[in-house]
């Protein structure tokens, strides 16, 4: 999550475990749905400058009765994105196997992972995320059950060595896929626009592959529950799989391990036991509250609302501490807010908007609860909105500005629009001005593109919303996406904030919202 | 076993399984003795042209509370040779581990295996024998139990990657050693000659590490039951561990899977089920009979002698088919005999001697059994010995010659001496002539050095036998052997018939006989 130059580490984090919440999250552990999938084709990777990353997978004829010796390799295509466990049978061909088999397996979501050696990777995220295994098989024939879970469409098999006396053959290679999403719950869309129909499908598949023991951000990387992704996955979930207990589980997981000031961390680890990461993000912490709001209004689960409201309210309370005497979020070196991956993006204005957006939804929850915080929140909201217009709105440019340099970014305008700081008509003009003037500090993640599209919808520009959605997610499909990606800049398709596209996740939760946008808003 | 240019493959081998024999071998499966061993030091490998392979392991101070990150490595020394399973605890140090740990482990019997990368190996035996593993650990802390068995003194740990946020520490690294030898059965030697005492110890440790589910040739490589090694291990076993059931098990394993002509193959695989290798060696097949002879006279197990005599006799019978009209072993392209690893060694004369040696012992068994084969064998023996002297003895040189080129080799003289073809006094002179004239075709394996020493003993040259034993095995100890090696040429310490000393076994059964020679012959 952190940018390259800054890796957030908090050495003195003290966690205040709520064992009731943790127990509740445990009880909500989902059953995983398992299915057996077999490879569809042999493929080879072909260099092609016309495609993303410059590599294309091309189906080739398989030879029947193929056996492999030292240095032989082949690539299998499983037809679409899979998340699961890989099994196979390996048998010796020739004389009895008088030395072990050494075999290397490489798993890739995209053809480039079959083409570019992982040994050349030099990004700043850990190389351990790149999925490869070297196994030694002492006894043949053997049934191999790889213990780790993989996220892939392609598997490359490389026989490192056998011996001069034998070769090997592979039988019954299969993937046992796992998900906590039940596809039979999804109501078919039947959209007359075939591209939107396709985007909806790919979006649903993306969510399905990310729904595991928790809502994972991405099944290849980081395989973890993050607040920002959770919020969006939950919205998509309500329109599709409706596994609402999974949302509830995740809310209790986060609320179960705040620090001793009540701060909810940006992501949690659940194995070997539940611990929060030492990353605290201003915007993500507020999204906890917003996610609870969305959950309640999707499910009417008042009991959960009652129980988790104090945790949600606490995040608002803590965020308010960051406001300066002008009621503007203090932009200094002591805070972290995500918003988007752009290296130069200033977080002040977008974060201010996330706060306003969160307070409004907190007020809705307070009303349902008859909470005594309602009046206080309404009063603060008023002050903050007024301050925002006073200090962050540049009337001349017609944009919100952020930070000491008064940066104009896409993210600021989008979040301010979602927070409905301006009146509706000015809000609509703001979004239109954004689209026509195209400030330099652009969006880099599908996460922010979601909010762009949603902002266009709520200001009443549905057609433009559909246009953006098709241009972005449609282009991803055109570029070969079986599931939507963690990162995508249609003008710089090699983009990775990590230093190498090999490590990007090509099935990412925060990219799965088109199904929500299409279905919820009847696009 | 086969030389580089010749790899024996028999495509149409038909096996005639004897299920009774196989069942008997199953019932004799040994219990493995397990012990927990911990590393003794951290070491580093230091280049040193004065030592074998040019690398020495030097103990270094360990830092307490050491943690490791990307690119860090360390080497542990377990103090002596170990065969077993490796366990450890790994825990994260720093922030919660937000990416998998990727860890590479390299196991070596000798310091050179810690120094020279296996990626540079280019010998003709399979690189899969070189012991290394790359593991990915998704959940930390973790208890790691590596499933494969390793043969090593040193383990190198290389942390390939963690993440910027955490490092790892290793706790409680241990090896659970396995053997089917019970050290408490060994009577202490108390030899006044301290070098002989040491040689005896190292020899016993070598045998102990090779005694597993079967008598293995070497626990690193090939981890398999071979006839030639079995014979020598059994002799050492009778003087030490006296696990005679293990010898019996191995005899039944071999006798259980002859081919459809009754030929017993040179080695067998026991997993996933018992199958013989497709290697048939003239000398090794005769050693089956000799091994049965040794077994009976060590144990008086007549029941086994009765059951396995037909298999033993059959090997003699089949070997006799190779004699030409002069009663000399036909040396052509249609046969394989091992004898020793020397590339230019002619096998005719040594194999002739192995045959004579085997027939003499078969006659001893026939006598015990009252077998009607006795007379026939005695008659054939006479003919063969006469023919051997007529056709293979060069009176002028005072040596036996082998093959069309009339090659004079160490191996020929040694086996002829063991076969007692000449009268005792001439036999003794033969061995002395060998030691003084030193023919060019020398010995390359401890296997043949065993027979050299034993030949000197049986011709009555005990002192010279001790001299040779000390010069050879003593020099191995001087060069750092914790267990005796598969291959050793004191004049060419880098020797490997496989193209690289990395792949040599440094704990090899056929090198373990000094304990037998010392104890049996009271050296």
TrEMBL record, chains A, B:
Protein keywords: Hydrolase
Name the UniProt record assigns to this protein: Sugar hydrolase
Domain Glycosyl hydrolase family 78 alpha-rhamnosidase N-terminal: 39-177
Molecular function GO labels: hydrolase activity
Gene3D superfamilies: 1.50.10.10
Pfam families the record matches: Bac_rhamnosid6H, Glyco_hydro_78_N
Segments forming domain Alpha-L-rhamnosidase six-hairpin glycosidase: 193-517
């Amino acid at each position: 999550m952190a940018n390259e130059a800054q890796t957030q580490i908090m050495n003195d984090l003290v966690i205040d475990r709520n064992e009731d919440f943790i127990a509740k999250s445990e009880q909500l552990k989902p059953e995983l749905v398992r299915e057996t999938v077999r490879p569809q084709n042999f493929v080879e990777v072909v260099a092609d400058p016309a495609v993303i990353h410059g590599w294309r997978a091309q189906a080739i004829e398989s030879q029947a009765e193929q056996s492999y010796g030292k240095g032989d390799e082949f690539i299998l295509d499983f037809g679409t994105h899979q998340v699961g466990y890989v099994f196979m049978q390996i048998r010796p061909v020739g004389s009895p196997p008088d030395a072990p088999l050494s075999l290397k397996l490489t798993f890739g979501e995209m053809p480039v992972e079959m083409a570019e050696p992982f040994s050349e990777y030099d990004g700043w995220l850990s190389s351990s995320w790149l999925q490869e295994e070297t196994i030694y098989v002492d006894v043949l024939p053997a049934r191999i059950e790889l213990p780790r879970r993989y996220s892939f469409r392609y598997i490359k098999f490389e026989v490192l060595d056998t011996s001069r006396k034998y070769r090997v053959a592979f039988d019954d290679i299969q993937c046992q896929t796992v998900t906590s999403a039940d596809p039979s719950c999804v109501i078919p869309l039947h959209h007359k626009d075939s591209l939107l129909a396709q985007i909806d499908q790919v979006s649903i598949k993306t969510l399905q592959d990310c729904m595991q023991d928790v809502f994972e951000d991405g099944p290849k990387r980081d395989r973890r529950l993050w607040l920002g992704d959770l919020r969006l996955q939950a919205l998509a979930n309500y329109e599709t799989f409706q596994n609402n207990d999974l949302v509830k589980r995740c809310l209790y997981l986060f609320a179960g391990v705040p620090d001793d000031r009540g701060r909810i961390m940006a992501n949690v680890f659940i194995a070997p036991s539940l611990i929060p990461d030492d990353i605290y993000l201003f915007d993500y912490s507020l999204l906890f509250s917003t996610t609870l709001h969305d959950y309640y209004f999707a499910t009417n689960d008042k009991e959960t609302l009652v129980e988790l409201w104090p945790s949600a309210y606490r995040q608002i309370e803590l965020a308010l501490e960051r406001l300066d005497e002008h009621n503007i979020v203090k932009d200094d070196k002591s805070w972290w807010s995500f918003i988007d991956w752009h290296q130069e993006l200033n977080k002040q204005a977008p974060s201010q908007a996330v706060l306003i957006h969160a307070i409004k939804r907190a007020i809705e929850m307070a009303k349902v609860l008859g909470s005594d915080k309602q009046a206080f929140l309404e009063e603060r909201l008023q002050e903050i909105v007024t301050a925002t217009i006073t200090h962050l709105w540049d009337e001349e440019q017609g944009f919100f500005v952020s930070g000491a340099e008064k940066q104009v970014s896409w993210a600021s305008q989008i979040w301010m629009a979602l927070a409905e700081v301006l009146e509706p008509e000015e809000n609509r003009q703001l979004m239109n001005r954004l689209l026509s003037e195209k400030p330099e500090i652009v969006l880099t993640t599908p996460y922010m593109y979601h909010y762009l599209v949603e902002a266009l919808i709520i200001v009443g520009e549905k057609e433009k919303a559909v246009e953006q959605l098709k241009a972005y997610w449609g282009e991803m499909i055109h570029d070969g996406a079986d599931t939507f990606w963690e990162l995508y800049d249609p003008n710089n398709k090699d983009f990775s904030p990590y230093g190498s596209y090999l490590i990007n996740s090509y099935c990412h939760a925060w990219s799965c919202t088109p199904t929500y946008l299409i279905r919820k808003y009847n696009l």
